[in-house]
Amino acid sequence: MFSPEGPTLRELAVQALSSVEHGYDLLAPKFDHTPFRTPDSVLDAVASALEKSGPYEDGLDLCCGTGAGAGVLATVCRGSVTGVDFSAGMLAQARGRTRPAGPRVSWVRADARALPFAAAFDLVVSFGAFGHFLPRELPALFAGVRTALRPGGCFAFPVLAPPGPSSPAFWMLLGFDGVMRVRNALWRPPFVMYYRAFRLGEVRRELERAGFRVDLRALPEFGTRSDGSPRGRLVEARRTDGPGGPDGRDQPAAGRVNA
């Protein structure tokens, strides 16, 4: 699963027994050599889909990690690209990346559940981060994303079809989640990372409750399943109302935080 440059089994064990933040600080120097990094095929497919609905002015990569998703934003955003993550180690790796000429890029350390932005972006993307949020945390997470977007702004993220029970991957992911639940029942601090907790139907309902109109766009690069449904989709959640929020009250004045 891992390249020679990736973490050892001992390093992964130490990470798994840490908090989420400290675990990613430890993993950061080798993160891009693990399967946890979003594959380029997913990044490229999302960039291609967003080019059809763009261009956008300012973009935010939510839970940006080492900054792989910033390249997607740089292809569709003309003004600026911002990455936000709560791991200082991951942000240090992101800052060290060589960036081609394009929109200005900045990095912000913050918790995705308490974003320090108001009406600052036209596009928010996220890649592979939602397993770190428990279902009860989604309302606050999505409300924060909505506040960070300007009216009409888009929150986009890819969702790949889960493997079926006949696939070894199904049992591997099920086993991983089971191990993590036992670990969190016996050890503190918790390390929240579940592969099977982010269910599209529930997520769509929470997005709509938060004030988004949700559309699903097939990602043709990943083909279709035996029943004809897409193997990959892009969720495009648009902030639906004007200056007022879902309750009709005005949102905070536009602003942004720079690294």
Structural overview:
The structure is a single chain. This protein has 259 residues and is α/β, with parallel strands linked by helices. The protein contains eight helices and seven strands; from the N terminus they run H-H-H-E-H-E-H-E-E-H-E-H-H-E-E. Helix 5 (88-95) links the parallel strand 2 and strand 3. 33% of the residues are buried.
Coarse morphology: globular
The major sheet is characterized as:
7 strands, mixed
End-to-end Cα distance: 34 Å
Strand percentage lies at 15-25%
* SSE order: HHHEHEHEEHEHHEE
Please work out how many helical segments DSSP would assign. 8
Question: What is the helical fraction, as a range of percent?
Answer: 25-40%
Question: Poorly predicted ranges (pLDDT <50, ≥5 residues)?
Answer: 247-259
Rounded radius of gyration (Å): 18 Å
Work out the number of β strands. 7
**Averaged pLDDT:** 84
Write the layout of secondary structure elements.
Elements (H helix, E strand, L loop, with lengths): L8 H8 L3 H8 L12 H14 L2 E7 L7 H7 E9 L2 H8 L8 E6 L11 E6 L11 H11 E12 L7 H19 L13 H10 L2 E7 L13 E8 L20
Parallel strand pairs: 1-2, 1-4, 2-3, 4-5
Antiparallel strand pairs: 5-7, 6-7
Helix pairs in contact: 1-2, 3-4, 6-8
Question: In short, what is this structure?
Answer:
This protein has 259 residues and is of the alpha/beta class. 33% of the residues lie in helices and 21% in strands.
Defining traits:
single chain, 259 residues, alpha/beta, 8 helices, 21% strand, disordered C terminus
